[in-house]
Amino acid sequence: MTIQYDKIAEDYLLGQNKYATVNESEKRIVEKLLPELEGKSVLDIGCAGGDSIKKLELLGATNIYGIDISPSMVAKAKKIVRRPENVYVSGFEHTNFDNDCFDIIFARYSLHYAKDIDAVYKELLRITKPQGHLLFVVHHPIEALLLQKKSTEYGKQEIVSIRIFGKKVKIQMPSHTLKEYFSDFFFDNFNLDAFEEGPSVSDNLDSHVVPDYLVYKATKK
Question: Taking the model in full, what pTM does it have?
Answer without folding.
Answer: 0.88
